[in-house]
């Protein structure tokens, strides 16, 4: 309590509650503590802080405000483990001890304050501050992802039109994938053909002499042609199937585009020349109708 001066409690009151509590902790010369894990010390600090708020609200001078904090701290210590009857007796004795430090009005206000707070909730104070509590606390840090910033409403489009654009985009993507797949197949077959020809030609020196006979050369050429024909056959089959698939995708896109929803209702605005022409035609119709009646 050595640092709890009138100037100190005045500063506590002038701060907002979080900063005021922290300043009060420093004035009391308490070490820093975890508010969640050390709930007893946190509640005790709250009680002392609220006594300052009470005293200032009742118009206590700053010197007496510091004494109210001292009174509160002593009362909490002296009543620890006592019955409620003993606590009331201790409160009365302490008020008599401080009788010379407060005027009668402030002393009665202090008496009412502790009767309406401390004594009324005495069992709760004893349960929290008077005995050790088994704290099972689990702290989980959760990352909250804020939703993305919405685009301006002016950039929005009709739901049906958006769905139509998504369908067209999916068909275009499928078409691109087909074309890419065809290019990859061509490259794969080319490499496969080169590998098979190289393998076929590499077998010749191992089983034949350096000079090939006419029949052997013809067989080798026929085998090479057969390899090329087989690869070309696979490629043509794949190209035909891929072409049909691409045409089918183009046909689907055409159907979608023909049935595309209209984004906004079309507003027909007539030009000045059109207005004059419309008036002229209307006037002529009126004249012809009068002539027929005559």
Structural class category: mainly alpha
Topology as a string of helices (H) and strands (E): HHHHHHHHHHH
* Amount of helix: over 70%
Share in β-strands: under 5%
| Poorly predicted residue ranges | 266-271
Distance between the termini: 118 Å
Please tell me what the overall shape is.
Answer: elongated
Number of helices: 11
Q: Radius of gyration over alpha carbons? A: 48 Å
Number of domains: 2
Question: How would you state the average pLDDT, rounded?
Answer: 81
> How would a crystallographer describe the biggest sheet?
none
Pfam families: CLAMP
Biased composition (Basic residues): 282-294
Region (Disordered): 269-294
Give an overview of the whole structure:
The chain contains eleven helices and no strands. With 294 residues, it is an all-alpha fold. Helices cover 71% and strands 0% of the residues. Mean pLDDT is 81; it is low at 266-271.
Element layout with pairings:
Elements: H1 6-14, H2 17-27, H3 39-57, H4 62-78, H5 84-97, H6 104-119, H7 122-129, H8 159-202, H9 204-207, H10 214-258, H11 272-293
Helix pairs in contact: 1-2, 1-4, 3-4, 5-6, 8-10
Please tag this protein with its features.
single chain; mainly alpha; 11 helices; 294 residues; 2 domains; elongated
Short description, anyone?
The protein is an all-alpha fold and 294 residues long.
């Amino acid at each position: 309590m050595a640092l709890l001066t009138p100037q100190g409690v005045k500063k506590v009151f002038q701060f907002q509650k979080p900063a005021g509590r922290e300043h009060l902790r420093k004035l009391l010369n308490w070490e820093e503590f975890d508010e969640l894990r050390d709930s007893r010390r946190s509640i005790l600090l709250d009680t002392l802080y609220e006594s300052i708020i009470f005293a200032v609200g009742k118009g206590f001078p700053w010197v007496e405000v510091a004494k109210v904090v001292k009174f509160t701290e002593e009362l909490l210590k002296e009543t620890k483990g006592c019955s409620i009857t003993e606590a009331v007796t201790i409160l009365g004795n302490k008020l008599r001890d401080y009788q010379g430090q407060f005027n009668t009005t402030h002393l009665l206000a202090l008496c009412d304050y502790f009767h309406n707070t401390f004594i009324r909730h005495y069992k709760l104070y004893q349960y929290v501050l008077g005995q050790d509590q088994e704290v099972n606390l689990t702290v989980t840090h959760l990352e909250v992802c804020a939703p993305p910033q919405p685009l301006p409403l002016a950039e929005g489009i009709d739901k049906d039109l958006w769905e139509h654009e998504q369908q067209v985009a999916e068909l275009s993507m499928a078409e691109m994938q087909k074309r890419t797949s065809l290019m990859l197949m061509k490259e794969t077959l080319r490499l496969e053909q080169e590998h098979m020809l190289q393998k076929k030609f590499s077998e010749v020196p191992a089983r034949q002499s350096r000079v090939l006979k006419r029949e052997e050369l013809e067989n080798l050429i026929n085998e090479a042609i057969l390899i090329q024909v087989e690869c070309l056959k696979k490629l043509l089959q794949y190209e035909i199937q891929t072409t049909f698939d691409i045409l089918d995708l183009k046909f689907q896109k055409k159907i979608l585009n023909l049935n595309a929803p209209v984004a906004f209702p079309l507003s027909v605005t007539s030009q000045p020349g059109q207005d004059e022409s419309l008036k002229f035609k209307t006037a002529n119709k009126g004249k012809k109708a009068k002539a027929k009646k005559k």
